Recover the amino acids of this structure.
């Protein structure tokens, strides 16, 4: 192989890698969050760390309409998980309050307990996390597109 062929091969490999992974985007390591038994009631939550960020797993009410942010464990158990980093300027939002609301203490963005945006200045919901069920435990396995 000559120098020109080597450069073509190297460039092709680099472009393929960027195309498959996305520039600067790595896939976070999977994290075991909790056994499903820890989420026995609607609005039960489990804080955890994912991809170096504070996050939360929340059991939400049964929904009649499809929601890509909600993971169905069984007919009666629906879960969602998301980063607790505010999409406005990156502050850490608190856990949901007794009324199942979240208000960012930095600039007042408001979110529902499922991470969806209620009011700005943020213009996006909290970043959703992809969930899987493995041997009775819930795992965070990647990011969902908002």
């Amino acid at each position: 192989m000559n120098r020109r062929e080597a450069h073509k091969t190297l460039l092709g490999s680099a472009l393929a890698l960027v195309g498959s992974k996305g520039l600067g985007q790595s896939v976070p390591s999977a994290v075991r969050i909790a056994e499903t038994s820890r989420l026995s009631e609607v609005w039960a939550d489990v804080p955890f760390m994912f991809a170096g960020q504070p996050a939360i797993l929340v059991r939400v009410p049964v929904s009649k309409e499809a929601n890509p942010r909600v993971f169905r464990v069984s007919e009666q158990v629906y879960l969602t998980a998301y980063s607790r980093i505010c999409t406005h300027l990156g502050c850490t939002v608190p856990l949901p309050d007794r009324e199942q609301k979240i208000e960012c203490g930095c600039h007042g963005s408001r979110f529902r307990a499922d991470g969806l945006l209620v009011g700005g200045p943020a213009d996006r919901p909290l970043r959703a996390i992809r969930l899987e069920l493995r041997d009775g435990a819930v795992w965070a396995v990647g990011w969902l597109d908002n």
Summary: Confidence is low (pLDDT under 50) at residues 6-24. The chain has one domain: 25-143. Residues 1 and 71 are 51 Å apart (CA to CA).
